[in-house]
Amino acid sequence: MRLKSIGIENFRNHRHLEFDPGQRITNIYGCNGSGKTSILEAIHYCALTKGFSGNSDRDCLMFGEEVFTIRSSFESDQGSETKVAVAYAPSKEKRILVNEQELQIFSRHIGLIPCVTFTPRELVIITGGPAERRRFMDTAICQYDRKYLSDLLQYRRVLQQRNALLSSYGDLAAVETSLEVLTDQLVTHAVEIVAARERFISSFSVMLDEVYRWQPDCAKSAITYHSSLHHHETQLSKKEMQAQFSERYRVLKKQELLRRQTLAGPHRDDLQLYLNGREIRKFASQGQQRAFLVAMKMTMHAYLHEHSDEMPVTLLDDLFSELDAKVSSVMLETLSSKGQVIITSTEKRDGNDITYFSIDEYRKTSGQER
Amino acid sequence: MRYSSGAVEALIEEFAKLPGIGRKTAQRLTMHVLQTRRSEVEKLTSALIDVKEKVIRCSVCQNITDLGVDPCHLCTSTGRDRTVICVVESPTEVLAFEKTGHYKGLYHVLHGVISPLDGVGPDDIKVRELLVRIGPSVSDEVREVVLALNPTVEGETTSLYISKLLKPLGINVTRIARGIPVGAELEFIDEATLSRAMEGRSAI
Ligand SMILES: [Zn+2]
């Protein structure tokens, strides 16, 4: 998949901006605060229906304006065109149109335009809490497995209902059957989610180790998936999982009733990241952690490339300020050989076959002085 | 813009409260009422009041019926298969099944689904009334209960809940198939529906 053009209005600090990236690498450059990242964020909206890590729709609306719009045109690897338009006004729901057809369910759009991001903020995948690593995993799997997204959304809903029941019950006897039913539902979706995550991580880990080989320290890397519902090394059938998860909730029941919340499940799972057999969050230098994240992102790119019909679009935000020259150029070289890469920087980057886009010049020629 | 008449304004506001009616439509309806003969308007107001005064819930199936017609026509009809009860969320769904003309059994309207988030438990919907229809003291011999709730998480919770209560009674509990709409092309069906349809496949 390749972005052909994008036009944005009242989005973050852009009143109006039109942008046509190149085939391979496109370098958007401009001083800090000029709105480079916002362009990537707009592209992210078109691919995955929302902004970067945690920014809300309202955050993206230009101050004092009533509506932002994004209009984009993508070209598939086979050459067919997909038009995506996003419009948001706080007074209404967000609207997304694909080829002029309004999307009723946003989740159906995920996966159509595979997209890999790298932003400095994402180092929290390595250093932050389990939620960050779950988000990484879910974003990856959702893009090639639609059933997963549906299970995830339903799991979350069941979890909310179950927690509501646990937190509000008065007489246990009166809610016993409801709790049993909600536990069964939770287990049904949990089995699907855990199985998909196990499948993903086991092959992802192998790919990661291969990708990591170019790193100077020639280290051995690994990722393991830790489920809060079972600790089995061996692959279980879904039926066995179902029995095991149900048993786990039976054991936890007393505690859950006491603490009035669901204490285990995919919403409590985590990944463990290892470098040379040691947990990277605790034992690696910051440089090693960054390099590890780069390797994870490159692996994700390769993985999505292998598991979806389209080559992913890669969005790299401020890559060069965070990584040493060698690592960043290897990353850029590798990714751009398999799809479109759009990268931001403060200074213009030298290189072959790069399309440049200067925000400052754009503003001058389009008559919008800042 | 606002109208110079307080009464007109008030009616617009009332219309605008109705589902699917925006302010523009509410204005159009109000203008229409304003130009209609008094006798016609009176018919409308009495119809509105009648709905509140004369419509009750059938004491058997809980579907809506008129005052004095309890049990309802469906429950007393001799042409229906009294061994099957189809359980639905609201009267709208009864209407939908009746339109098909194919289902000949009885109904039971729950008036909601279990949702702890909204403070709705099994006792807040008509589950107990369903059990009463099936218990050993009842003359009608119900053999099958068909669950026809919406495919939401809450609909599923309610279906599983009811089936947990009914199965020990030796009742055959079934649910309507969830899957591909008739006339749809397989390639346009979303993955979740398609895999569910695959799981629920049947022999031919
Ligand atoms: Zn009735």
From TrEMBL, chain A:
Keywords, sorted A to Z: ATP-binding, Cytoplasm, DNA damage, DNA repair, DNA replication, DNA-binding, Nucleotide-binding, SOS response
Family matches, as SUPFAM superfamilies: P-loop containing nucleoside triphosphate hydrolases (SSF52540)
Main location: cytoplasm
GO molecular function: ATP binding; ATP hydrolysis activity; single-stranded DNA binding
Location(s) in or outside the cell: Cytoplasm
Biological process terms in GO annotation: DNA replication; DNA synthesis involved in DNA repair; double-strand break repair; SOS response
InterPro entries, per database record: DNA-binding_RecF, DNA-binding_RecF_CS, P-loop_NTPase, Rad50/SbcC_AAA, RecF_2
An annotated GO cellular component: cytoplasm
Domain (Rad50/SbcC-type AAA) ranges: 6-94
Binding site for ATP: G30, C31, N32, G33, S34, G35, K36, T37
The protein's role, per its UniProt record: The RecF protein is involved in DNA metabolism; it is required for DNA replication and normal SOS inducibility. RecF binds preferentially to single-stranded, linear DNA. It also seems to bind ATP.
PANTHER family, sorted: DNA REPLICATION AND REPAIR PROTEIN RECF
Family named by the database record: Belongs to the RecF family.
Protein name: DNA replication and repair protein RecF
Protein species of origin: Chlorobaculum thiosulfatiphilum (Chlorobium limicola f.sp. thiosulfatophilum)
Organism lineage: Bacteria, Pseudomonadati, Chlorobiota, Chlorobiia, Chlorobiales
Automatic annotation (TrEMBL), chain B:
Molecular function GO labels: DNA binding; zinc ion binding
Similarity comment text for this entry: Belongs to the RecR family.
Keyword DNA damage tagged: yes
Residues annotated as domain Toprim: 83-181
Pfam families to which the protein is assigned, alphabetical: RecR_C, RecR_HhH, Toprim_4
Protein name (Swiss-Prot/TrEMBL): Recombination protein RecR
Alphabetic keyword roster: DNA damage, DNA recombination, DNA repair, Metal-binding, Zinc, Zinc-finger
Xref: SUPFAM superfamilies: Recombination protein RecR
Its biological purpose: May play a role in DNA repair. It seems to be involved in an RecBC-independent recombinational process of DNA repair. It may act with RecF and RecO.
Top-level taxonomic group: Bacteria
Record's keyword annotation contains Lipoprotein: no
GO terms, biological process: DNA recombination; DNA repair
